[in-house]
Amino acid sequence: MLKTIFFRITILFFIPTLLFAIPNRTEAKGHLAFTDSIGNKKLNARISLIDSLRGTNYQNSSIYYDNSTILKLSLVGQLSPSLRFESHSELISDKTNRSIEINNFQPADGIPYTKESDNTKGWNRFRASLEYDLPFGTLLAGYDHLQMGVAKRNSVIMRGSKHIYRPWMDTTSFIFEPAPTPYFGYQFEVGRLSYTQYAAKLYHKKNTGKYLNAHRLQLNLPFDVELGASEVIVYGSTTEFNNTNPNPDADSIFRSFEWVYAIPFVPYLFAEPLLGDLDNNALAFDFSVKTLKNYEFYGELFFDDLANPLSMFDDSWWGNKWAASIGFTANDFCVSSVCLSFNTEFTRVEPWTYTHHKGGGYTYSNYGSSLGSDLGPNSQEIYTRLDAEWKWMKLTLEASAVDQDTAFGGNINDIHTPLSDTEKHFLEDESTIQYTELKASLLVSPFDFFWTQVGYSFYLGAYKGSRLEGSIGLTW
């Protein structure tokens, strides 16, 4: 395996000029603006129509075609200088030459959709947020993605709306995109310190409660250095049937929202034992250094339910679960009218990370998808990217090498039991799949109201094959 990893590092870092890619683009800049006579009330409205077509072909299988048509309405504005809001709604219709299964609207099965025919389905997305400034801070509320951390590619703490296509996501029965969640919270700033806290509702099983509380303390130091410390706690009603989970504390007790976690400045590490040591708590740290102009060095470290962070390298206990991302960027180096940017990042997720022995009510997930890295437990990725932008065209050079262990403890829904192995094994040769993705795409956006892109991905390894995608969008 070491020879394989070394070979893939060589590909990713020494010949990035062979690769092309482009980030997702779902909206343009055009909008309709409204305001009152004194400018206190403002509303920007934007309507977008997007059509995309994708074709995939893995391991000499038949070519699969998927077409998505999206109608999007966005409203952004303020009702007073202190009250700001956003609202984004999308109606989506998917067509494919593959069979679509019936969705039973169980949250653990992903974002729900309606099967309209054997080859078409319809679904929707929406998110909204509200901010209200008070003399002592800002109140937060909405139905939106929650994000914590600084990683560009794989946020191991809370990834928010980040969505990266992986070959194992090539299915018509599960929507892998991260789902938003209803939340309320607040933010305080005191000099170089800022504190943000959220209380949110998660979803895993219908008619059962699942909740998330998170808070983050950020320190902005001189020389453009940022340090962050976060705590996240997940808990809820046990979702498994009685007597199906052999762990003695998986007793199907119905949980309700714990208000003590919503009190500001209360360490969850102290509060959780007082509530009976029932919940899935996590501790995380991140940093960003931008001391040198146009350069950034950053990292995230996530401890999942780890009693002693000093034991993170002890593989003799499965509960030593952690994940980390570390990366480097170089931005805005312009030669004549062409501007270049570069990013590279390495991510490692230990076995059993994001899982919980009590089951789905405590798993670090929402609508069946990880709140952290989408790589899932027992995985790693080496990633590199080069962007080139010229006027209204953008070209990106991108590659990634992924290892994912499919053994027990490598799926976010796996449940460790008293009979399971107490040791953890990272990327064992016999059960690990490996692939390298090389991707090329081009974005053309000559006007604010019109854009189009086309891209091609080439896969080597376990998912040998290719993927061709293109999209076009109009915005009013």
The H-and-E topology, N to C, reads as HEEEEEEEEEEEEEHEEEEEEEEEEE
Number of strands: 24
Fraction of residues in helices? under 10%
CATH topology value: Porin
**Portion in beta strands:** over 45%
Class inferred from helices and paired strands: mainly beta
Query: How many whole angstroms does the radius of gyration measure?
Result: 23 Å
| Shape label | globular
- What would CATH call the architecture? Beta Barrel
Task: Report the end-to-end length measured between terminal Cα atoms.
Answer: 52 Å
* Assembly state (oligomeric): single chain
Number of domains: 1
Write a concise synopsis of the structure shown.
It is built from 2 helices and 24 strands. It is mainly beta and 476 residues long. It has one domain (2-475): Porin.
What does this structure look like?
With 476 residues, the protein is mainly beta. The protein has one domain (2-475): Porin (Beta Barrel). 4% of the residues lie in helices and 51% in strands. It is built from 2 helices and 24 strands. It has helices spanning 2-14, 268-274; strands spanning 32-35, 42-58, 64-80, 83-96, 114-117, 120-134, 137-144, 147-148, 158-159, 181-190, 193-202, 210-221, 225-236, 280-289, 295-304, 321-335, 338-349, 365-366, 369-370, 379-390, 393-405, 432-447, 450-461, 465-475. The chain has an 18-stranded antiparallel beta barrel. Strand 3 and strand 4 form a beta hairpin.
